[in-house]
Specification:
The chain is an alpha/beta fold and 442 residues long. It folds into 2 domains: 277 residues, Aminopeptidase, CATH 3.40.630; 125 residues, Aminopeptidase i, Domain 2, CATH 2.30.250. Helices cover 25% and strands 26% of the residues. The strands form 4 sheets. A 9-stranded mixed sheet has the order 1-2-3-12-4-13-17-15-16, sandwiched between helices. The protein has a 5-stranded mixed sheet with strand order 10-11-19-18-14, with no helix packed on it. Strands 8-7-9 form a 3-stranded antiparallel sheet. Helix 1 crosses helix 5. The radius of gyration is 22 Å and the shape is globular. It starts with 15 loop residues before the first helix and ends in an 8-residue tail after the last helix. The structure holds cobalt (II) ion (CO).
């Protein structure tokens, strides 16, 4: 543990699979579509939850709104327990209100609502696109949901000039989320969001009834640094973990299995950044019911299923705070976290992270087997840490859970920074954990 690679080790290859995942996923709905496409290419078949569950073992996934759960019972039985990896598809951002069209001093603007806890300043003076989903009504048939993605410089939130805000550098930037964040998107007074969407979707504007649309930075991910050791990208929190989880599941199902092999499951949830309390969030019923239906389909009764959960393990994969070189004093001095030094086990005695000692032991063993270095995070006593879906799934399922993730800077910025190599180590480690042996009893 706390083994570090030689300083200055550059990435041998750019993390191209991660970069393409991030670029494909400006919204949770696009993240789910990209995960589904990657799984389908490996023989995973979609299960529809309103239909009877497939009883034959196989590779499957289920989509509910901005969440996706995927698993394989091929050659495996849930009676050996589950190996779960949880992550989240959503990132903090700015979202279009239901009646957003505004005019002010000659500008056409769109009113936005803040989603989660973004670093608001990071959204200023960027050329922004638009993505998400739109409900469209039709004459005689049922409404449909259309994925929308506009990768054009449509919107911008202009910062106030320094001449009109003389104290900003010394006193800090204060942004009011109601009054200071409305993007401009042109000068034409007839611009309207429903007119724009209708044109893009080629439907009458009266059939655009509702949407879940968000802004995204158009600047593509970049391998950064003179030694190419860093990755700058939007949504590192938490598409790094989503991409690693999908890759880990694909790696895990490619290995041999028997009836004593645990069932690997990945669950990529929406709504983590706003507390997970939703029909598709980690605090909802989605995972509970999917696991139970997997067990029932395999012939387990409820008692067998609860016994299987007791022998299961969940890894909650989410971003960790690297120690910031300009603010090292904000971090616990005995738990400095370096970029490029491997995934981070996150600990918190107030259970903001769910990590416990036996779970750590399983992860440490998997790290040893895959030659992956680990780091251990604990926050300063005077600096409360964030949280993850880890404690939520642990409480909901009663499953032993470990919080783990890739270190990064600028968490919740529109553009974050991590190592170019840690994400690949995370995938390797998670793939091993998905195939690790059943847990001993408690
Ligand atoms: Co996160």
């Amino acid at each position: 543990m706390d083994r570090h690679p030689a300083p200055g080790t550059p990435a041998s290859d750019p993390p191209s699979s991660l970069i393409s995942f991030v670029e494909a996923a400006p919204s949770p709905f696009h993240a789910v579509a990209e995960a589904a496409a990657r799984l389908q290419a490996e023989g995973f078949e979609q299960v529809l939850e309103h239909l009877p569950w497939p009883t034959a073992p196989g590779r499957h996934f289920l989509v509910r709104d901005g969440s996706i759960v995927a698993w394989s019972t091929e050659g495996r039985s849930p009676s050996a327990g589950f190996r779960l990896i949880g992550a989240h598809t959503d990132s903090p951002n700015l979202r279009i209100r239901p009646r957003p069209d505004r005019r002010s001093v000659g500008f056409a603007q769109l009113a936005v609502e803040v989603y989660g806890a973004p670093l608001l300043n990071s959204w200023l003076d960027r050329d922004l696109g638009l993505s998400g989903r739109v409900a469209v009504t039709h004459d005689r048939s049922a409404p449909t949901i259309e994925l929308v993605r506009v990768d054009e410089p449509l919107l911008r939130i202009p910062q106030l000039a320094i001449h009109l805000d003389r104290g900003v550098s010394a006193e800090g930037l204060v942004l009011n989320p109601q009054t200071h964040l409305s993007p401009v998107w042109g000068l034409d007074p007839s611009l309207s969001i429903s007119g724009f969407l209708a044109e893009r979707l080629d439907v009458p504007s009266s059939s655009i009834v509702s949407w879940e649309l968000m802004l995204h930075d158009l600047c593509p991910p970049a391998v950064l640094g003179a030694d190419h050791s860093l990755l700058a990208a939007p949504r590192i929190d938490n598409l790094v973990s989503c991409e690693a989880a999908v890759g880990a599941l694909i790696d895990a199902v490619g290995r041999g299995a028997d009836a004593d092999t645990t069932v690997p499951v990945i669950c990529l949830f929406d709504h983590e950044e706003v507390g997970s309390e939703s029909a598709s969030g980690a605090a909802g019923s989605i995972l509970v019911s999917i696991l139970e239906r997997i067990s029932i389909a395999a012939g387990l009764d409820r008692d067998d299923h609860l016994a299987a959960l007791a022998g299961s393990l969940c890894v909650s994969a989410d971003g960790a705070h690297a120690t910031h070189p300009n603010y090292a004093e904000r971090h616990e001095p005995g738990h400095q976290i370096l970029l490029g030094a491997g995934p981070v086990l996150k600990h918190n005695e107030s259970r903001r992270y769910a990590t416990d000692p036996l779970g750590v032991a399983v992860v440490v063993e998997a790290a040893r087997e895959t030659d992956v270095a680990l780091q251990q995070f604990s926050s300063r006593g005077d600096m409360p840490c964030g949280s993850t879906i880890g404690p939520v799934t642990a409480a909901r399922l009663g499953v032993r859970t470990v919080d783990l993730g890739v270190a990064q800077l600028s968490m919740h910025s529109a553009r974050e920074l991590c190592s170019a190599t840690d994400p690949l180590l995370l995938r390797r480690l998670l793939g091993q954990i998905l195939t690790s042996s059943p847990l001993p009893g408690r």
